[in-house]
């Protein structure tokens, strides 16, 4: 039987349980084992949350690369549907990775302009405009500090 994957939810539950045990252990006359066991549970929960976040970030990064490759392939072959699907997959993965860090991705103004240009190209069927927008957005991403 395989070991369960780390989960942010079960990690948070273990952490809360550990904190509760520690609170009980702080009551005069209770056994020290409550405090000790609580500290262990809280640490175990925090470690599980961290492991789940790292797994989610790694998965998101792999999905983002896959989306970018798919988008590039669509641009090279002139397949608009593949390009769009790749862009969407890469965007979803970027958000997934940011959420794992507890953040919201904040793109640069040049990247936003490129994405808007790409969206306009997609909406109007202007593949060249969409491609130029994608290139502008990618260039802004690669040059950010």
From TrEMBL:
Biased composition (Basic and acidic residues): 41-63, 126-145
Region described as Disordered: 38-63, 123-145
Protein name: CsbD-like domain-containing protein
Source organism: Rhodotorula graminis (strain WP1)
């Amino acid at each position: 039987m395989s070991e369960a994957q780390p989960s942010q939810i079960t990690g948070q539950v273990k952490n809360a349980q550990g904190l509760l045990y520690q609170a009980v252990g702080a009551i005069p006359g209770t056994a020290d084992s409550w405090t000790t066991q609580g500290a262990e549970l809280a640490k175990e929960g925090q470690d599980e949350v961290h492991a789940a976040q790292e797994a989610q970030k790694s998965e998101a990064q792999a999905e983002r690369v896959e989306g970018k490759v798919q988008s590039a392939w669509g641009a090279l072959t002139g397949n608009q549907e593949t390009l769009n699907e790749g862009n969407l997959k890469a965007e979803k993965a970027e958000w997934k990775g940011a959420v794992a860090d507890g953040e919201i991705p904040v793109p640069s103004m040049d990247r936003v302009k490129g994405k808007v240009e790409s969206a306009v190209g997609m909406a109007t069927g202007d593949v060249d405009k969409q491609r130029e927008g994608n290139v502008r957005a990618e260039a802004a991403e690669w040059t950010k500090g």
